[in-house]
Amino acid sequence: KAGVTQTPRYLIKTRGQQVTLSCSPISGHRSVSWYQQTPGQGLQFLFEYFSETQRNKGNFPGRFSGRQFSNSRSEMNVSTLELGDSALYLCASREPNTGELFFGEGSRLTVL
Amino acid sequence: EDKVVQSPLSLVVHEGDTVTLNCSYEVTNFRSLLWYKQEKKAPTFLFMLTSSGIEKKSGRLSSILDKKELFSILNITATQTGDSAVYLCAVEFWSGGGADGLTFGKGTHLIIQP
User: Fewer CB within 10 Å, N or C, chain A?
Assistant: First the structure.
Protein backbone atom coordinates (compact mmCIF):
# COMPACT_ATOMS: atom_id res chain seq x y z
CA LYS A 1 0.00 0.00 0.00
CA ALA A 2 1.54 3.29 -1.07
CA GLY A 3 2.15 5.91 1.60
CA VAL A 4 1.30 9.58 1.57
CA THR A 5 2.90 11.18 -1.48
CA GLN A 6 3.85 14.82 -1.64
CA THR A 7 5.10 16.72 -4.65
CA PRO A 8 7.32 18.49 -5.33
CA ARG A 9 9.85 17.44 -2.69
CA TYR A 10 11.96 20.58 -3.04
CA LEU A 11 11.33 23.93 -4.61
CA ILE A 12 12.79 27.41 -4.63
CA LYS A 13 10.70 30.51 -5.18
CA THR A 14 11.23 34.24 -4.89
CA ARG A 15 9.29 36.71 -2.79
CA GLY A 16 5.94 37.66 -4.25
CA GLN A 17 5.51 34.46 -6.22
CA GLN A 18 2.94 31.82 -5.45
CA VAL A 19 3.33 28.09 -4.97
CA THR A 20 1.07 25.04 -5.14
CA LEU A 21 1.91 21.85 -3.29
CA SER A 22 0.22 18.52 -3.83
CA CYS A 23 -0.59 15.64 -1.52
CA SER A 24 -1.97 12.20 -2.38
CA PRO A 25 -3.24 10.38 0.71
CA ILE A 26 -3.10 6.69 1.40
CA SER A 27 -5.82 4.88 -0.52
CA GLY A 28 -9.02 4.84 1.51
CA HIS A 29 -8.05 7.82 3.67
CA ARG A 30 -10.46 10.72 3.19
CA SER A 31 -9.04 13.17 5.70
CA VAL A 32 -5.98 15.19 4.74
CA SER A 33 -4.29 17.78 6.92
CA TRP A 34 -1.41 20.16 6.25
CA TYR A 35 1.33 21.39 8.57
CA GLN A 36 4.14 23.89 8.38
CA GLN A 37 7.39 22.97 10.10
CA THR A 38 10.11 25.56 10.82
CA PRO A 39 13.04 25.41 13.24
CA GLY A 40 11.67 28.26 15.31
CA GLN A 41 7.98 27.39 15.49
CA GLY A 42 8.03 23.64 15.15
CA LEU A 43 5.07 21.91 13.54
CA GLN A 44 2.01 24.09 13.11
CA PHE A 45 -1.40 23.06 11.86
CA LEU A 46 -2.55 24.75 8.67
CA PHE A 47 -5.86 23.10 7.75
CA GLU A 48 -7.72 19.84 7.46
CA TYR A 49 -9.94 18.61 4.66
CA PHE A 50 -12.50 15.85 4.67
CA SER A 51 -14.68 14.91 1.71
CA GLU A 52 -13.65 18.04 -0.21
CA THR A 53 -14.63 20.35 2.69
CA GLN A 54 -12.28 22.31 4.88
CA ARG A 55 -13.09 21.13 8.36
CA ASN A 56 -10.63 23.16 10.39
CA LYS A 57 -8.11 25.92 9.89
CA GLY A 58 -5.10 27.01 11.91
CA ASN A 59 -3.89 30.53 12.60
CA PHE A 60 -2.35 31.37 9.26
CA PRO A 61 -3.06 34.37 7.01
CA GLY A 62 -5.40 34.15 4.07
CA ARG A 63 -2.41 33.77 1.72
CA PHE A 64 -2.48 30.11 2.73
CA SER A 65 -5.31 28.18 1.15
CA GLY A 66 -6.10 24.65 0.18
CA ARG A 67 -8.58 22.37 -1.44
CA GLN A 68 -9.42 18.71 -1.72
CA PHE A 69 -10.61 16.85 -4.76
CA SER A 70 -13.14 14.05 -5.08
CA ASN A 71 -10.34 11.45 -5.11
CA SER A 72 -9.14 12.85 -1.74
CA ARG A 73 -5.99 14.36 -3.22
CA SER A 74 -5.30 17.75 -1.75
CA GLU A 75 -3.43 20.87 -2.77
CA MET A 76 -2.30 23.82 -0.77
CA ASN A 77 -1.45 27.18 -2.22
CA VAL A 78 0.59 30.03 -0.80
CA SER A 79 0.29 33.35 -2.59
CA THR A 80 2.53 36.42 -2.37
CA LEU A 81 5.35 34.44 -0.83
CA GLU A 82 7.39 35.93 2.00
CA LEU A 83 10.83 34.92 3.24
CA GLY A 84 9.23 33.58 6.40
CA ASP A 85 7.24 31.05 4.39
CA SER A 86 10.41 29.02 3.90
CA ALA A 87 9.62 25.76 5.65
CA LEU A 88 8.93 22.07 5.34
CA TYR A 89 5.27 21.57 4.47
CA LEU A 90 3.95 18.24 5.64
CA CYS A 91 0.76 16.56 4.63
CA ALA A 92 -0.86 13.77 6.60
CA SER A 93 -3.77 11.46 5.92
CA ARG A 94 -5.86 9.89 8.63
CA GLU A 95 -6.64 6.20 8.96
CA PRO A 96 -10.45 6.13 9.31
CA ASN A 97 -10.66 3.33 11.89
CA THR A 98 -7.84 4.16 14.28
CA GLY A 99 -7.50 7.90 13.63
CA GLU A 100 -3.75 7.51 13.23
CA LEU A 101 -2.06 10.14 11.08
CA PHE A 102 0.40 9.09 8.42
CA PHE A 103 2.75 11.79 7.21
CA GLY A 104 4.26 12.31 3.81
CA GLU A 105 7.94 13.15 3.36
CA GLY A 106 7.15 16.82 2.94
CA SER A 107 7.77 19.58 0.44
CA ARG A 108 10.69 21.80 1.37
CA LEU A 109 10.04 25.34 0.19
CA THR A 110 12.79 27.95 0.09
CA VAL A 111 11.80 31.55 -0.57
CA LEU A 112 14.60 33.84 -1.71
CA GLU B 1 -4.72 29.40 23.85
CA ASP B 2 -4.09 25.69 23.54
CA LYS B 3 -0.49 24.71 24.04
CA VAL B 4 1.82 21.73 24.28
CA VAL B 5 5.18 22.01 26.04
CA GLN B 6 7.91 19.44 25.76
CA SER B 7 10.97 19.08 27.93
CA PRO B 8 13.85 18.92 27.71
CA LEU B 9 14.28 20.57 24.32
CA SER B 10 17.47 18.63 23.77
CA LEU B 11 19.16 15.73 25.48
CA VAL B 12 22.46 13.95 24.94
CA VAL B 13 22.99 10.54 26.55
CA HIS B 14 25.17 7.50 26.03
CA GLU B 15 24.11 4.28 24.42
CA GLY B 16 22.45 2.01 26.93
CA ASP B 17 21.07 4.82 29.06
CA THR B 18 17.36 5.20 29.82
CA VAL B 19 15.68 8.48 28.92
CA THR B 20 12.38 10.07 29.89
CA LEU B 21 10.83 12.72 27.69
CA ASN B 22 8.08 14.95 29.02
CA CYS B 23 5.03 16.53 27.46
CA SER B 24 2.56 18.79 29.27
CA TYR B 25 -0.49 20.29 27.68
CA GLU B 26 -3.30 22.75 28.13
CA VAL B 27 -6.13 22.17 25.70
CA THR B 28 -9.88 22.27 25.84
CA ASN B 29 -11.90 19.28 24.65
CA PHE B 30 -8.95 16.90 24.79
CA ARG B 31 -9.25 13.90 22.49
CA SER B 32 -5.88 12.17 22.41
CA LEU B 33 -2.15 12.65 22.86
CA LEU B 34 0.24 11.31 20.29
CA TRP B 35 3.97 10.74 20.16
CA TYR B 36 5.95 10.82 16.93
CA LYS B 37 9.58 10.21 16.05
CA GLN B 38 11.11 12.40 13.38
CA GLU B 39 14.49 11.73 11.86
CA LYS B 40 15.41 13.51 8.67
CA LYS B 41 12.07 13.04 7.04
CA ALA B 42 8.41 12.54 7.90
CA PRO B 43 7.32 12.02 11.51
CA THR B 44 6.51 8.40 12.21
CA PHE B 45 3.80 7.39 14.64
CA LEU B 46 4.78 5.89 17.98
CA PHE B 47 1.80 5.98 20.34
CA MET B 48 -1.71 7.33 20.71
CA LEU B 49 -2.91 7.76 24.28
CA THR B 50 -6.48 8.48 25.25
CA SER B 51 -6.89 7.02 28.73
CA SER B 52 -5.07 7.90 31.93
CA GLY B 53 -2.78 5.43 33.62
CA ILE B 54 -2.65 2.83 30.86
CA GLU B 55 0.91 2.28 29.70
CA LYS B 56 1.51 1.62 26.04
CA LYS B 57 4.63 -0.34 25.10
CA SER B 58 6.45 -1.05 21.91
CA GLY B 59 9.79 -2.77 22.39
CA ARG B 60 12.06 -0.47 24.37
CA LEU B 61 9.62 2.43 24.15
CA SER B 62 6.73 3.05 26.49
CA SER B 63 4.41 5.92 27.23
CA ILE B 64 1.76 6.85 29.74
CA LEU B 65 -0.78 9.65 30.06
CA ASP B 66 -1.99 11.49 33.14
CA LYS B 67 -5.18 13.37 32.24
CA LYS B 68 -5.56 14.80 35.73
CA GLU B 69 -2.13 16.43 35.75
CA LEU B 70 -2.20 17.01 31.97
CA PHE B 71 1.06 15.40 30.99
CA SER B 72 2.58 12.39 29.32
CA ILE B 73 6.00 10.78 29.40
CA LEU B 74 7.83 8.77 26.80
CA ASN B 75 10.44 6.35 28.11
CA ILE B 76 13.16 4.75 26.07
CA THR B 77 15.24 2.05 27.76
CA ALA B 78 18.62 0.66 26.65
CA THR B 79 18.97 3.47 24.13
CA GLN B 80 20.70 2.85 20.81
CA THR B 81 22.23 5.29 18.31
CA GLY B 82 19.25 4.64 16.05
CA ASP B 83 17.03 6.27 18.66
CA SER B 84 18.62 9.63 17.86
CA ALA B 85 15.81 11.80 16.52
CA VAL B 86 13.39 14.56 17.39
CA TYR B 87 10.50 13.24 19.44
CA LEU B 88 7.29 15.17 18.93
CA CYS B 89 4.30 15.25 21.24
CA ALA B 90 0.95 16.36 19.83
CA VAL B 91 -2.47 16.81 21.33
CA GLU B 92 -5.69 16.41 19.41
CA PHE B 93 -8.92 18.02 20.55
CA TRP B 94 -12.55 17.97 19.50
CA SER B 95 -14.33 20.71 17.65
CA GLY B 96 -17.97 20.87 16.64
CA GLY B 97 -17.40 19.63 13.13
CA GLY B 98 -14.99 16.83 13.98
CA ALA B 99 -11.51 16.58 15.36
CA ASP B 100 -9.34 19.67 15.11
CA GLY B 101 -5.88 19.48 13.79
CA LEU B 102 -3.09 18.57 16.14
CA THR B 103 -1.22 21.04 18.32
CA PHE B 104 2.41 20.01 18.39
CA GLY B 105 5.09 20.69 20.94
CA LYS B 106 8.46 21.98 19.76
CA GLY B 107 9.98 18.53 20.16
CA THR B 108 12.83 17.00 22.14
CA HIS B 109 16.02 16.55 20.16
CA LEU B 110 17.56 13.33 21.48
CA ILE B 111 21.15 12.42 20.65
CA ILE B 112 22.52 9.02 21.61
CA GLN B 113 26.30 8.88 21.70
CA PRO B 114 28.07 5.56 21.10
Answer: N
B59-97 tens-digit pLDDT: 999 999 999 999 999 999 999 999 999 999 999 887 665
**Chain B stretch 34-93, residues whose beta carbon is closer than 8 A to a beta carbon of chain A:** 34, 36, 41-45, 48, 88, 90, 92
Task: Quick: pLDDT tens for A73-97.
Answer: 999 999 999 999 999 999 999 888 8
Q: In angstroms, what separates the C-alpha of B90 from chain A's closest C-alpha? A: 9
Residues of chain B contacting A43 with CB distance shorter than 8 Å: 43, 88, 90, 102, 104, 107
CA distances from A32 to A83, B37, B79 (A): 26, 20, 34
